[in-house]
Amino acid sequence: MKLKNRILPFCQAIPQLLKFQAISLLVLAPVTLGVSLLCSLLLGLSGKAAVASGDLGFLFTHWQGYVMILLTLLMVLCYVAVELNALVIYCSRLLDGDSPSVWRCIKEGFAGLRKYLSLRGLVIVIYAAILAPILGLGFSISLTSTFYIPRFIMSVIQATPLFMTGYIIVMALLLIVALVYCFILHGALTDGMTMKEASVNSRKLVAKNWKNFLFEVICYSVLSLLAAALIVLVFFLPLFIVQLIPMAESVLNFLNVFFSLLLTVAVLFTMLVTVSFVIIKLTMLYKKYASEGEWTYEKREKKRHPVMITVTALVVVLCIVLSISGTTFFDILFPSKIDAEIIGHRAGGVEAPENTVKGIDVAYELGAKGCEIDIQRTSDGYYVVNHDADFERVAGVSKKPSEMTLSEVKELSVDGEPVPTLEEMLDASKDKVILFVELKGETADEQMADDAVRIIKEKGMQDQAVLISLKLDVLEYIEQKYPEMQTGYLAFISFGQIEDTPFDYLALEEEIATDDTIAAVHAKGKKLIVWTVNDEDDIEEFLTSEADAIITDSVKLSAQTKERLMNRKPYEIILQKTLSLLK
């Protein structure tokens, strides 16, 4: 097939797909807002500000939690009805040469939800809402498009060969299943099949045409990557060229902001049509295979699209207006200074044996302002520093700290370094770094809280130590009994106004540390830390955000990245700032 014929259906569908996206937003935005407000009201009735990873039991032990779960499921179904069902129906009719009504397709999309009243239907919803975003393949919904396996879980998987092997096998199997059953919605929604019939039909179509199917999938993937790269290049090129032309600083700043905004719009456009293009391609293949190769795309007559032209013109005008404002308030909008600090994960991260005194020293030498450590209680009541449930990974002993005495623990070593006590880590960090002490594991209880506070006070380090934990009840106990102590709540899932929780620090996993959340936390006079930030792109993203600090294993890389960011050129600052609007 000629290249022109491959890309023509997508190009001609763009105006209609953008129209679909706009109307979908009008339908789903009120749903999302309404569910959010209702959940906030339910949390308020229960006396809670938020439900986070340390208190998920609330959802299954209170009537408010059950209602929140039900509302969330209904919201997911709304997204499935609009962004999957209606879009499949819309694309199918579009490719047949019709001019389908978006509203009618959405209505039929909601009616199609009855097709999901089966085990297969439930599996499809789970796949679209959770697995597809993680895999980055096939049908998905925008509500959960940012889902991924949390970094702290992936780090454990990657560090364990058995887990990594299992992960690769599971991902491969999910990928195969996704490909084999990729036509299930087409059969169910456009040809009136049951989910069972549609799944059998999809499997047969893929099996019968597997060579052509794989060829088409590969071609589509390659062309998609090339198209995305071309779009970025076309819009980035002017930004690069203006750096080479001598001109007044104000003019250069204006052009930098203008072209950065245009590039951001281009990237946003690409993101908007990505899922729609996937469904367009699968719909074309379904029609071709189901008709035994008799179906072909018929070129549509060229039409003027005054709405698109008007919207494009308005976007350009808006970019000009924003560029003028950006130039006028350049230093305020695009500061070059990086205020976010670096905190070593498990003392010094990968730069030294984890959770050791040496880690504190190395992190301090590299410029870290803080170190995070994990404490657990021994059988004779002392507090030693270790992350895992036992010492198997770091010291080759499969015993828990709670099963050993302090003297037994002191016989162990981590890459040649002794396992330290809390007291030793406090001594090592005093007047150097702030020590974030995580109350960890099965011994993280009120006794640990009492003892940790006592030890910190004996060292005179109340202002240089922060007690943190994933366990909400332990932190609430500290806040009530020891309000003078600094506390920090670790969370990797959050619903509601987490900024209203009564802690000095909120340490949030990357996905939930959004700009809005950071602003809300600061508005309450609290500090926000992002964990665990290890990849260079993520380090750059959060160092240039409004976050107060990042917790990282890559202390050296973070320090180098921070130094580089402090010396960015103006266009780099602008580009990073404008592209962050997409997140």
Task: Describe the model.
With 583 residues, the protein is of the alpha/beta class. It is built from 22 helices and 13 strands. The chain has helices at 3-46, 63-95, 102-111, 119-135, 151-159, 161-180, 184-190, 195-208, 210-242, 249-290, 306-328, 330-333, 357-365, 392-395, 406-409, 422-429, 446-458, 472-481, 515-523, 536-543, 555-566, 570-579; strands at residues 50-52, 341-344, 370-377, 383-385, 413-414, 417-418, 434-439, 465-469, 486-491, 494-496, 505-509, 527-531, 549-552. The strands form 3 sheets. Strands 2-3-7-8-9-11-12-13 form an 8-stranded parallel beta barrel, surrounded by 7 helices. Helix 19 links the parallel strand 11 and strand 12 (527-531). Helix 2 (63-95) packs across helix 10, helix 10 (249-290) runs antiparallel to helix 11 (306-328) and helix 20 crosses helix 21. The protein is globular. It starts with a helix and ends with a helix.
In a few lines, what is going on in this structure?
This protein has 583 residues and is an alpha/beta fold.
List keywords for this structure.
alpha/beta
Q: How much helicity do the residues have?
A: 55-70%
Strand content: 5-15%
> How many strands in all?
13
- Extract low-pLDDT stretches: none
Which shape, going by the Cα principal axes?
globular
Oligomer: single chain
- Largest sheet, order of strands side by side? 2-3-7-8-9-11-12-13
